[in-house]
Amino acid sequence: MPSLQTALPPELANNVIRLYRECLRRAKYVGHQKQNTKLLVDMVRQQFKNNKNETDPEKIQKMKDDAARGLINHILYEAERLSGRKFSKTS
C-alpha cells in the first residue's frame, strides 16, 4: 500500500518535526474556531510525546501516515466548507 504522505509536500511528509508543527497549526486553527485550542494542542503534543521513543520503522510510517491522513482530511473539509463544493464522493 502506498504511503498517504505522497499527498503532502515531501519536505513536510519526510520530516516528523515539520509534520508535528503542521499538526499543531491545524489544532490551533480548529481550536480557535471551537474555543478549545488548549485541549486540541495538548492532545497533539501528547500523541507525539507518547510515541517519541518508537524505533520500529513500520510503526513510525503508520503513525506518520495517520497524521498525514488527518491533515489531508482537514484540508479537504475546510476547502469544501469555504467553497461550498463537495470534493469527495459519497455513496
Automatic annotation (TrEMBL):
It comes from the Eukaryota. CDD domains: Complex1_LYR_SF. It comes from Acer yangbiense. This is Complex 1 LYR protein domain-containing protein. Residues 16-69 form the Complex 1 LYR protein domain.
